[in-house]
């Protein structure tokens, strides 16, 4: 049997958009999981903080078990470490080395590249949440609100809005500052928010005026909202969701407006 003319003619062109996004997201995730510094920031540090402060009476977390206070805050810290600190540093150096410029010239649209990065962040966060939840249960954590539909929906909404808020701020920093400045600033912000964001130290320990300002930070809203639902069994934390929504809109809007690809 002979093949007709043109049967094996090549058909050059870009792959379907969905396939390109999935491939880029898978690549971003593999790169993140292979990076020792990123793993230290996103997995090791939150895990050590959870185990240490739950096992040793260092900080007064109020009535009840320390892990009941700490677990929601460490989950918020994990979201911040991945969506903000890790993404800002990685994207900043990709921009410095011309990676973003070259990817921007590929068939993958720039918005699709940002979508792939966001998907990679979400996959990493799922792994973080699963790991930290297992460890917290081993330490005696007893969450209350997650077992109900409304509680689970509240937790999911808090995590999604928190991710959007931190991603916007991380991309804004990576797209406007030099890579070295991004590295220093992202780590400094991580440390400051770790101490003053209600993650480990209760906001009640701060003076009234300072506390009011700290409550408007995205990590404070995320940790307090998760704590209200998971420890206290409260309903939908609308005030905290509102704070996160404002940060998400401002951060993503500013990142879209001022992000420089080279």
Can you describe what's shown?
The chain is globular. It is built from ten helices and no strands. The protein has helices at residues 17-34, 36-55, 66-96, 99-104, 110-138, 149-176, 179-196, 208-214, 218-230, 238-258. The longest helix has 31 residues, at 66-96. It has one domain (18-258). The model has no long low-confidence stretch (mean pLDDT 86). The chain has 262 residues and is mainly alpha-helical.
Summarize, please.
With 262 residues, the chain is mainly alpha-helical.
Low-confidence segments:
none
Series of H and E elements: HHHHHHHHHH
Strand content: under 5%
Mean pLDDT: 86
Q: Major β-sheet, in short?
A: none
Number of strands: 0
Q: How many separate helices?
A: 10
Keywords:
single chain; 262 residues; mainly alpha; 10 helices
List the helices and strands and how they pair.
Blueprint (H helix, E strand, L loop, with lengths): L16 H18 L1 H20 L10 H31 L2 H6 L5 H29 L10 H28 L2 H18 L11 H7 L3 H13 L7 H21 L4
Helix pairs in contact: 1-5, 2-3, 2-5, 3-5, 3-6, 3-7, 3-9, 6-9, 6-10, 9-10
């Amino acid at each position: 049997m002979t093949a007709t003319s043109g049967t094996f003619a090549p058909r050059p062109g870009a792959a379907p958009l969905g396939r390109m996004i999935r491939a880029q997201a898978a690549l971003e995730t593999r790169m993140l999981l292979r990076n020792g510094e990123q793993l230290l920031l996103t997995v090791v540090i939150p895990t050590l903080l959870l185990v240490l402060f739950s096992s040793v009476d260092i900080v007064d977390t109020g009535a009840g078990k320390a892990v009941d206070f700490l677990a929601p805050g460490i989950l918020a810290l994990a979201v911040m470490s991945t969506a903000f600190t890790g993404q800002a540093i990685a994207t900043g150096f990709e921009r410095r080395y011309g990676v973003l410029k070259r990817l921007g010239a590929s068939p993958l649209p720039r918005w699709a590249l940002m979508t792939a990065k966001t998907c990679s962040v979400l996959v990493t966060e799922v792994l973080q949440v699963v790991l930290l939840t297992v460890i917290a249960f081993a330490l005696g954590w007893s969450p209350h609100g997650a077992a109900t539909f409304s509680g689970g929906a509240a937790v999911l909404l808090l995590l999604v809005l928190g991710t959007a808020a931190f991603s916007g701020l991380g991309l804004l920093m990576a797209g406007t500052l030099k890579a070295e400045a991004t590295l220093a600033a992202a780590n400094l912000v991580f440390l400051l928010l770790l101490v003053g964001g209600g993650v480990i130290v209760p906001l009640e320990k701060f003076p009234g005026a300072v506390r009011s300002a700290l409550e408007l930070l995205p990590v404070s809203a995320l940790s307090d909202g998760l704590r209200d639902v998971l420890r206290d069994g409260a309903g939908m934390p609308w005030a905290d969701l509102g704070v996160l929504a404002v940060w998400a809109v401002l951060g993503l809007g500013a990142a879209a407006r001022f992000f420089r690809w080279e």
